[in-house]
Design brief:
Blueprint lengths: L4 E6 L7 H14 L4 E6 L1 H4 L12 H15 L6 E5 L5 H9 L5 H5 L2 H9 L9 H4 L1 H10 L5 E4 L4 H18 L7 E4 L28 H9 L20 H9 L4 H9 L5 H27 L2 H29 L6
Parallel strand pairs: 1-2, 2-3, 4-5
Helix pairs in contact: 3-13, 4-8, 4-14, 8-9, 10-13, 11-13
The structure holds tryptophan (TRP).
Length: 333
């Protein structure tokens, strides 16, 4: 018995970092207890922002690295269906069919598309067709499993909204087929990067990888920006504006009161505080890193898990596509 079915996906971004873990992955792990879960590597979606050539070679490796993180963090192939989007080509079939009943205007108004267009200098001539259709493919990912809920960050909320609209429109045009998927917004504290300013992200290089070695974790932690007004060791610090303190709450929860007292009375300096945090992070990730290392020594095991996941996913996806063919009049019932 479960509370329904979940689908979520991540583009293959290689090794995940603390922000990915606390922003999504940890929640995915928990949801396995409550829902029937489908977790997908959105490798086709990766093609919407890569530009061919050398970059293409990174997708399969990034997939492997990310899935190692997923498994080491506790995604369980016995309980969840873990698979790669392109291994289930039905996603592309449904994407093609849904594109026939999705008004272009909806897609052009999606905030993430407009943002991307701005980044590309409003150069519509060179916007890949697939980028406009990004939310249609994402909708296919979700409704091909008739998922009820989609755990996503707030940045993806507009995509889920359009998925609901596409499902609703399909149902109206061709008869009740799909549940309208609901966003399960992950209300988690944002993890700020080592720069102390921006959300942790690989592209800003302000991140700490889950799989990093202890020394690299310490090195990156030592670069963290603390209270900018605390110029001298003897100045009292302000934990409430300090990113190191925010992370101490996560990684050294038992010591938070003590750290707060020592910081505000200049009893501890930022360097010691950061050294202490690095130890906390490494302790927190010790078992994860051990499991990941073991798994990485048997890549065939990961391949097997993804192969098995694709088979299970495909059984469901294929049935939906057959149903859609009939609904849309391409096959007789
Ligand atoms: N667009 C999502 C991201 O960039 C990845 C994704 C693809 C996804 N398909 C999905 C998320 C379906 C949720 C549901 O993170």
């Amino acid at each position: 018995m479960t509370d329904g079915r979940i689908l979520s996906g991540m583009r293959p971004s290689g090794r995940l970092h603390l922000g990915n873990y606390f922003g999504a992955l940890q929640n995915w792990v928990r949801l396995q207890d409550q829902y029937e879960c489908f977790y997908m590597v959105a490798d086709v979606h990766a093609l919407t922002t890569l530009s061919g050539g050398d970059e293409v070679g990174t997708i399969t490796n990034d997939t492997q690295e990310m899935v190692l993180d997923w498994l080491a963090a506790g995604l369980d192939p016995e309980r969840a269906v873990i698979f790669v989007q392109s291994h289930v080509p039905e996603h592309l079939v449904l994407h093609g069919l849904l594109s026939m009943c999705t008004p272009l205007g909806w897609l052009l108004r999606v905030p993430t598309f407009k943002e991307r267009l701005r980044q590309m200098g409003e150069d519509e001539e060179h916007v890949p067709y697939g980028l406009v259709g990004y939310p249609v493919l994402q909708t296919a990912d979700i409704i091909i499993y008739k998922a009820d809920k989609v755990p996503v960050g707030i940045d993806q909320a507009s995509h889920i909204e359009i998925s609901r609209e596409i499902a609703r429109r399909f149902n109206r045009l061709y008869g009740d087929t799909f549940p309208e998927p609901q966003a399960l917004l992950t209300d988690l504290p944002m993890i700020t990067g080592t720069d102390g300013q921006n959300k942790m992200s690989k592209s800003l290089d302000n991140h700490i990888e889950l799989a990093a070695a202890d020394e690299e974790t310490a090195q990156r932690t030592m670069t963290m920006v603390t209270d900018p007004q605390r110029a001298r060791r003897s100045d009292p610090g302000r934990p409430e504006v300090c990113n190191v303190f925010a992370l101490q709450k996560v990684f050294n929860p038992d010591k938070t009161d003590e750290i707060h007292r020592l910081c505000t009375t200049a009893g501890i300096g930022c360097v010691d505080d950061k050294r202490d945090l690095a130890e906390g992070i490494n302790r927190y990730l010790r078992e994860f890193r051990e499991r990941r290392r073991e798994l990485s020594e048997s890549p065939e095991r990961v391949r097997e898990i993804l192969h098995e996941g694709a088979k299970r996913a495909q059984a469901v996806a294929n049935a939906t596509v057959e149903e859609v063919y009939v609904r849309m009049g391409l096959r007789q019932a």
